[in-house]
Design a protein that fits this description.
Shape: globular
Largest sheet: 8 strands, mixed
CATH architecture of one domain: 3-Layer(bba) Sandwich
Number of strands: 20
CATH topology of one domain: FAD/NAD(P)-binding domain
Oligomer: single chain
Bound molecules: 3-acetylpyridine adenine dinucleotide
CATH superfamily of one domain: FAD/NAD(P)-binding domain
Strand content: 15-25%
Number of helices: 16
């Protein structure tokens, strides 16, 4: 059995960054990756139209000024192939490939209490002994497929947006169905509409979407960003979501109708996802949110010719951004094409698949291909697939049966020497997830250095610290509209999943301050039992940070 200092699970953005960082500290780190290539979600979500909805210059690594200067993004919002090329480049540029084992899916990780080490085993029977286990398994890595009657007998092709085949897919001359209108469904619709003979979009919940305002990056823009990159990163780090936008300090309700219209118009044309920060209280007050909803609905309405379709495509019943809105490039406009049809499956639900298509309560749709853009078991799906066993034989699945718990979103009581990157309890999907990933990994690297300096073998967080963090997450989310609707933020995307708000809504700056305070105070909430440290788990003092 090979022995390593850190076993990192997953070779996406997080796993590669962790490998580079821990190697730079002189540690023996190894990444295991289930698939046959690196890139994580950016490898698997290769559906047509896939692109990032965070600006390329912000959705990129910040750890190397040389890399920042060398890499040339071609568009404001990079496509999936360009992001994957970037990831492959980083792996080569920093010599990471020899630290990654592909086609190696973790089956189990078991903590050996006597040795203070993890034994990690792959599905094909190999195993490793590691002092630390770092889970970089992604939040959107467990695709979720509906289980409609007759699906197994359907004779056409079935694809999932999150498990896209690694080969060209042709839509020409085909009748294609897309189930799901989240970001994935909304991104692929206009692209497939241009190629397919006929496209049916099966919509259960109409989603809000802001136009991407994508454009090629000019030489002048590239120079301007690169001349002041450090300042841009600093601004992103100190913005609530890590996107660089500062919320407007004015309440949407205090602005005059005329001013509000101008602010929303500017945000609509330029900010994409940042529209939610056009006023600071859009996600805090239903009345403020209603002003944004009113504006967005008018904008969406102006894009759709047919009045019946217009009404069906109009998001309703939930506040804007309480569920993840999309950033699209021509989604609503696609429904003006004669070859695109909307199937409102809230009104006429899918009854079954037939060998030749899908039958709803209204009609039968003949389809050559069905694309499931039905999302993921978010936050916990990938973490709970393998068997992770902590102290006294308790599995993470058992431990999280009522919802995920952690201290600061980084570590779990009963699972010593285990760290989770961008998991539940951290800003994760409520932030520029790449920025959050890097900030956590840098913090982890300082934690491990602290352990070395003090001669500590093992760390573990306390249950009291977990309770305090759960209370803090709940307290922060109560200030918002997130719990007023069902979403994958609160576990509603999978039936039977505990209804718990999972990410941390206090913002990336506030979160970083809490991590820094924990560190400055000698790692409050952590118990260092292995190496004679006097540190004891203590109730962490938390404060509100905006
Ligand atoms: O998944 P989703 P996604 N029958 O969960 C519907 C990121 N991302 O893959 O809302 C019929 O958002 C479901 O309906 P409902 C981003 O964080 C980023 O689109 O549950 N329909 C919904 O419409 C995003 O939020 C980019 O009623 C079913 C859809 O499927 C996250 O990934 C691009 C169904 C699922 O929407 C996930 O997005 C793409 C069923 N049984 C994704 N089950 C970027 O731009 C589910 N649905 C970076």
């Amino acid at each position: 059995m090979e022995t390593v200092d850190i076993l990192i699970v997953g070779a996406g953005f997080a796993g590669l960054r962790a490998l580079h960082t821990f190697r730079s500290q002189g540690r023996h780190a190894l990444v295991i990756e289930a698939s046959d290539g690196i890139g994580g979600v950016w490898r698997h979500n290769a559906y047509p139209g896939a692109r990032c909805d965070v600006e390329s210059y912000d959705y990129s690594y910040s750890f190397s000024p040389e890399l920042e200067q060398e890499w040339r993004w071609s568009e404001r919002y990079a496509t999936q192939p360009e992001i994957l090329r970037y990831i492959e480049h980083v792996a080569d540029r920093f010599g990471l490939r020899d630290g990654i084992l592909l086609r190696t899916r973790m089956a189990s990780a078991v903590y050996d209490e006597a040795a203070d080490r993890w034994t990690v085993s792959s599905e094909d029977g190999r195993s490793w002994s590691a002092r630390h286990l770092m889970l970089c398994m992604g939040q959107l890595s467990a695709p979720k497929s509906p289980n409609y009657p007759g699906l197994a007998d359907y004779r056409g092709e079935v694809l999932h947006s999150g498990d896209w085949p690694n080969k060209p897919v042709s839509y020409a001359g085909k009748r294609v169905g897309i189930i799901g209108t989240g970001s994935s469904g909304m991104q692929m619709t206009p692209v497939i509409a241009q190629q397919a003979d006929h496209l049916v979009v099966f919509q259960r919940t109409a989603n809000f979407s802001i136009p991407a305002a994508n454009a090629p990056v000019t030489e002048a823009e590239d120079h301007a960003v690169k001349a002041a990159y450090a300042a841009r990163r600093e601004q992103a780090r100190n913005s609530p979501t890590g996107l660089g936008f500062k919320p407007n300090r004015v309440s949407a309700l205090d602005a005059s109708a005329q001013d509000r219209e101008a602010v929303y118009e500017a945000a609509w044309n330029r900010l994409g996802f940042g529209f939610a920060l056009a006023y600071y209280d859009i996600l805090l007050s239903r009345a403020a949110n209603d002003t944004a909803v009113d504006f967005i609905r008018r904008k969406i309405a102006s894009k759709i010719d047919d009045p019946v379709l217009r009404e069906k495509l109009m998001p309703k019943g939930h506040p804007f951004a309480s569920r993840r809105p999309s950033v699209d490039s021509g989604y609503f406009e696609a429904f003006n094409r004669p070859n695109v049809e909307l199937a409102d499956i809230r009104e006429a639900p899918i009854q079954r698949f037939t060998p030749s298509g899908i039958e709803t309560a209204a009609k039968h749709h003949d389809l050559d291909m069905v694309i499931l853009a039905t999302g993921f078991d978010v936050f916990t799906g990938s973490l709970l697939k393998p068997r992770i066993v902590g102290r006294r034989g308790v599995t993470l699945r058992d431990k999280w049966a009522d919802g995920p718990t952690s201290h600061l979103g980084v570590a779990v009581a009963g699972f010593p020497n285990m760290l989770i990157v961008c998991g539940p309890g951290s800003p994760s999907l409520l932030s520029n997830v790449l920025l959050s990933t890097e900030e956590q990994i840098d913090w982890f690297s300082r934690l491990l250095r602290h352990l070395d300096d003090k001669g500590i073998h093992a760390f573990e967080v306390g249950v009291e610290a977990e309770r305090t963090w759960a209370e803090h997450i709940a307290e922060r989310v109560r200030e918002t509209l997130y719990m007023t609707t069902d979403s994958y933020y609160n576990g509603a995307e999978v039936s039977g999943k505990p209804r718990v708000f999972m990410p941390y809504s206090g913002g990336v700056r506030g979160y970083r301050r809490l991590l820094e305070r924990c560190e400055a105070e000698g790692y409050t909430g952590f118990d260092f039992s292995g190496g004679g440290s006097a540190a004891k788990a203590a109730r962490p003092a938390l404060a509100s940070h905006g």
